[in-house]
């Protein structure tokens, strides 16, 4: 007998796993065992050739969290000014909400119970082809998304960020990461407050889906 999923529940999880920046509970510790449960699911994600070169660095030491948060904020300032201008020029109605959410995370990042930095053994060389680079990150990103889904189902909020990578070497020194290991991203991990997440506003599928040729329906 074929196994069938509860599609309503599955679709709800997939469409309501949001980037959580403001609604992170900064006062409630997240057990390491719970994070490892999420990683246990994450590593089931596809990995090219089953080489399993990802590694998962959890940061819950206060001083090290503060150090990563400082690097993040250092990169955040010039980035957010460009973003503010871009969303205003684009006429985004949600511009204020986006900026406020981003600002809040930057301010409180050092207070989150834990940070997760997914890494890849074998730092990409500058001369990698686009296909090779896509293959490398294609062995990590699905696993990170699986981690986020597993976290959401357990009451944990996450948010994909990459700003600290502007200072990747400094972060590596702080955390003892070898030179041949690449950091891919960083996500805060914390229980979220409230549970009224809903699907985000997105372009209609008909506008972004083509058949057999660019912009062909």
UniProtKB/TrEMBL annotation:
The keyword Oxidoreductase applies. Residues 17-187 form the Nitroreductase domain. GO terms for molecular function: oxidoreductase activity. The keyword Oxidoreductase applies. Pfam families: Nitroreductase. Keywords: Oxidoreductase. InterPro entries: Nitroreductase, Nitroreductase-like. Belongs to the nitroreductase family. This is Unannotated protein. It comes from freshwater metagenome.
